[in-house]
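ingest -> validate -> predict -> emit
validate: passed (alphabet ok, no gaps, 207 aa)
predict: started
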Amino acid sequence: MSVSAHDSAIHLRQTPAVPTEPVWRFNIEQYHQMIRQGILTNDDPVELLEGWIIPKMPKNPPHRIATKLTRNTLEEIVPEGWYVDTQEPITLEDSEPEPDVVVVRGNTRDYLDRHPGSHNVALVVEIADSSLERDRTFKKRIYARAGIPVYWIVNLNEQQLEVYTQPINLPEEPTYQQRKDYKLSDEIAVVIAGCKVGRITVQNLLP
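emit:
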């Protein structure tokens, strides 16, 4: 065997095989236990999605600004008994996503010993640029399965707001039965727990 061939053989033996199939999935309690034990910390940019610990997408300035604008806009019209939060966990059946913006029942002190669950959430919002495909598929499926009534995607790439309503938990693919897109100049009604609480202009949500 030549030197170069020998070196190549050693390299092949030392290079670990990349799994072609999933190797482990975590339930909510296992995920929480890793957090309690310090295996996962606040510095780890991950979230639990359908049992997988998935890296969160990095945020650029337009994403950060759209998150702040959306929160500010919703806080102006959300009624008493609800509050707006940003990039904090909500606990679902097999996932613990951290939506960019969420409207939650009650007040922050109601959740000292747990995160809000699906029955506490009226609206989730994802700000989408590089994450658009994930938000339209993976995240949409998760939120629909949980029965969250309204899901918004603030689509920075196409400068529009996508509103998903009427979740249905189909065995083959949970989804939302209705999607409507709104352009920058459009006004939309904000619906919380089935009630229209105000109207906003899409332009107010985007940088």
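Strands lie at 46-49, 52-55, 82-85, 101-105, 121-128, 150-155, 160-168, 175-183, 187-192, 195-201.
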